[in-house]
Amino acid sequence: MTENTVLPPGVPALPGRPAFTLMRIVGVVSVTLFVATEIIAAAGAGIWALTGLLGLGDLGALVVGAILGLPALYAIWLCACLAFKAEMDPAND
Questions:
Q1: What range defines the domain where residue 58 resides?
Q2: Is 87 within a domain?
Q3: What does the alpha-carbon distance between residue 33 and residue 56 come to, in Å, rounded to a whole number?
Q4: 15: number of CA atoms within 13 Å, CB side?
Q5: What is the pLDDT along the chain (93 residues), one digit of tens a residue?
Q6: Is 9 a member of any domain?
Q7: Domain membership flag for residue 6
Q8: Angle formed by the axes of helices 58-88 and 22-54, to 10°?
Q9: Which of these, 39, 4, 31, lies nearest to 88 by C-alpha position?
Q10: What is the per-residue pLDDT for 36?
Q11: Cα 80 vs. chain centroid, distance in angstroms?
Q12: Beta strands in 1-93 (DSSP E)
């Protein structure tokens, strides 16, 4: 069964595609920046702690930074994707 819904004037009938508005962009960017700040702070603290605990020099800090930095960047990317999905979900309007 299909329902016949009448849209108000000026509302486009896009099947399954919510509008891409400025508020949604601001929401995605703000959530991503907030979580990215926490992830970068945790990765930086981990790098600092490991290099200090193990007595690694500058090269060791770079290696540990690469090891912890790649998963941190991946976590930030996943957060951005989840924030975009959440903002574009019509149930959140």
A1: 22-92
A2: yes
A3: 30
A4: 0
A5: 555 556 566 665 556 666 788 999 999 999 999 999 999 999 999 999 999 999 999 999 999 999 999 999 999 999 999 999 998 887 877
A6: no
A7: no
A8: 160
A9: 31
A10: 96
A11: 2
A12: none
Give exposure, 57-91, as e/b (b: 16+ Cβ within 10 Å).
eeeeeeebbeebeeebeebbeebbeebbeebeeee
End-to-end CA distance of the chain, in Å?
Answer: 25
Query: Could you tell me the two tokens for 6?
Result: 């009448």
Structure tokens at 1: 């069964």
How far apart are alpha carbons 46 and 2 in whole angstroms?
Answer: 56
The tokens describing 73, both together, are 């960047």
pTM of the model: 0.73
